[in-house]
Backbone:
């Protein structure tokens, strides 16, 4: 639930109105994995928000890098 609410806020749907990200959003797993590894309940809302955004940014950059590498490998095979 925390992950879905955070994604709704990040995507601009706002968490104040109770909006949630879709259950099938692939980013939920990334955030859940992070939350299970850290003591997030001891963080302030600001600190947790920063951490979640950082995790998503790192995931996005890695995904983009993997896509570029895959394209390069596919172009080399042609």
Residues:
């Amino acid at each position: 639930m925390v992950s879905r609410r955070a994604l709704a806020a990040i995507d601009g749907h706002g968490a104040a109105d109770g909006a949630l990200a879709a259950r099938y959003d692939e980013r939920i797993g990334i955030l859940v994995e992070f939350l299970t590894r850290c003591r997030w309940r001891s963080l302030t809302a600001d600190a947790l928000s920063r951490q979640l955004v950082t995790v998503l940014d790192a995931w996005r950059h890695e995904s983009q890098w993997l896509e570029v590498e895959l394209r390069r490998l596919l172009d080399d095979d042609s």
Notes: The mean pLDDT is 89.
